[in-house]
C-alpha cells in the first residue's frame, strides 16, 4: 500500500511544497510555480493525504511548517536539486559535452588559484565545460544553496546550517594605501590608533562582502558615517586608491590578486585580523567526479602558490579530505 501511495507523489507536488516552505505564503508560492492559489492548495492537500500528515499550519496572517514538514523539506530540496542537475548534465551530454561545472569564488581565489588550475583541469577533463563567477561571500553562499553552482570558495559570512564549510587557508589583513598617504611613511606596523587618526581617508567595502563586514565590525557604532567612499567590490580599490591620500584594510591575497603592487601594503600591529577561505558545498551532498577533479587541480595550484606573508594553508586542507560529504555527528 505504501509503495502504491508513493506513486501519487510527483515532482509537481515537491516543487509546490518547496515554494510554500520557502515563501511561507500560499499567494507568493502560487506565483512562483505559475499556478492559481486554489490549484496550489489542492496540490498541497494531495501531498498531505499521500503522506498521511499535515505539513503546514495556516492562520489568517502566516503559514508555518510543522515538525514533519521541516524534516521533509531537507530531503525534498536535495531530491529536486539532484534531479535538476541530472537534467542539466544530460542536456550537456546531448550537446556533445561530458558535463558542465559552475563555480563561484572570491575574486582573489579566481585570479590566483582557480584560473591557473584550469590549465591542468583541461588536460584531465577536456570534455567538461566550466563557468567561473567571482562574487562576494553572500552571493556565493546563496548560489551554492540554490544549486546554481557546484561549489564555492569564500569566507563563512552567513554560516548557513544547510552549507558545509571546509577551511582551505587563512589570510591576514593589512593596510593598503597610496604612496603619498602619511601611513605609507611609517617605519613600523600600522596600529589601530593610526587607522583611527586617518579614518576620514578610509575607503570602505559594502557589507555583503566579508571585507566590508570586517570594516563595519572595526568601526562599531561609527560605521554608517565612518568613511566618505564605499565600494561594492575590491576590484574597484586600485583606481580609487590611486587617486591619492586614501587607504583601505584588505586581506593580503586580495592585494596580490588585484595586482595592487603600485600601492603600499603595510603590516598591522596586533591584534591581527584574519579571514578564513573555505570550500563551500551543500551539506550531505557529494561532489561530482568533474568537480572533484577541478578541486584537486585547484588545491595542487594552491600548494604551489607562493603564499604572501601572513597567509597559511589550513591543516585540514592538507589532509585532502575535501571530496566526500560529512555525516552528522
From TrEMBL:
UniProt entry keywords in alphabetical sequence: DNA-binding, Transcription, Transcription regulation
Under PROSITE patterns, the record lists:
HTH_LYSR
- Any Pfam family from its record, for instance, is HTH_1
- GO molecular function terms listed in the Swiss-Prot or TrEMBL record: DNA binding; DNA-binding transcription factor activity
**Domain named HTH lysR-type: residues:** 9-66
Tell me where the transmembrane regions lie. Answer: none
List GO terms (cellular component aspect). cytosol
Q: Does the keyword Transcription apply?
A: yes
Task: Give the record's family classification.
Answer: Belongs to the LysR transcriptional regulatory family.
What protein is this chain from? LysR family transcriptional regulator
